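Postdoc handover notes: sequence design on the structure in folder B. Input tokens:
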């Protein structure tokens, strides 16, 4: 079974900025000021404004050809992306390691729900059930990944014979460990990324191209 592990690079092709590298969000912004619980508690308006901007940007984009290719081939996806583009492309099996920026949850009660407003009607948004502060249901630095996402990822990797590692810098733990896990269980690893990454030495094949061109090359060269 083929499985894909994706990162921001697969969405970069439709104009959604990556975090690192050329044009990366973390070159301009300090992740500690925007992607941690303490930053959110200190200034929820600032953090929500940044998410509002990203949500608005993402809403007007469409999935890339690479997203569509993975969906058409019915390849299960483990993604670090929170943009929901794999689902919009029609992928049925998507494990979201870092949550989803269209989902919100309350810091005060157990409310969790979807919110697609762009721009948000109020900043910061309030819980419809208790009036508490809502946060984006994404994983911030210092927070654990959702247990279910880890379990589902490991289950997929237990059966995976080939892992396509697409558009990730492989620099964020623990997602960056998944290729090691797959390799230990005998999977072949293929990296599709225009740049070298810390995961590159692990790879059986490296395709130094963007996600769409790289996937096309992969599917045309290998009988699947
Ligand atoms: P990064 O921004 O760290 O890395 C993006 C990768 O995509 C780089 O290795 C680029 O070389 C590559 N890339 C750029 N254009 C590409 C293209 N057209 N096709 C294929 N690859 C391309 O993104 P992630 O590895 O996803 O976490 O970052 C991991 C996590 O760090 C994110 O999920 C986010 C961030 O902080 C949280 O928000 C918790």
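Designed sequence:
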């Amino acid at each position: 079974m083929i499985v894909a592990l994706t990162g921001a690079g697969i969405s970069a092709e439709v104009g959604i900025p990556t975090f690192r590298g050329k044009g990366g969000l973390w070159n301009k912004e300090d992740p500690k000021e925007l992607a941690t619980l303490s930053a959110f508690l200190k200034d929820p308006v600032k953090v929500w404004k940044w998410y509002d901007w990203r949500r608005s940007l993402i809403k007007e984009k469409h999935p890339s050809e690479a997203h569509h290719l993975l969906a058409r081939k019915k390849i299960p996806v483990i993604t670090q992306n929170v943009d929901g583009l794999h689902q919009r492309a029609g992928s049925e099996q998507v494990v979201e390691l870092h949550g989803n920026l269209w989902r919100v949850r309350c810091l005060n009660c157990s409310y969790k729900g979807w919110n697609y407003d762009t721009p948000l009607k109020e900043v910061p948004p309030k819980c419809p059930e208790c009036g508490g502060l809502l946060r984006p249901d994404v994983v911030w630095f210092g927070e654990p990944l959702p247990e279910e996402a880890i379990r589902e990822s490991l289950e997929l990797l237990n059966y995976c014979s080939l892992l396509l590692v697409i558009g990730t810098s492989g620099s964020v733990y623990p997602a960056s460990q998944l290729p090691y896990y797959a390799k230990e269980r005998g999977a072949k690893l293929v990296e599709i990324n225009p740049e070298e990454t810390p995961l590159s030495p692990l790879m059986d094949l490296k395709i130094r191209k963007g996600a769409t061109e790289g996937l096309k090359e992969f599917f045309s060269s290998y009988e699947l």
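Context for whoever picks this up: Residues 7-9, 12-13, 18-21, 24, 31, 35, 80, 98, 139, 167-169, 171-172, 192-195, 197, 210-211 surround 2'-O-acetyl adenosine-5-diphosphoribose (CB under 6 Å). Don't rerun without checking with the PI first.
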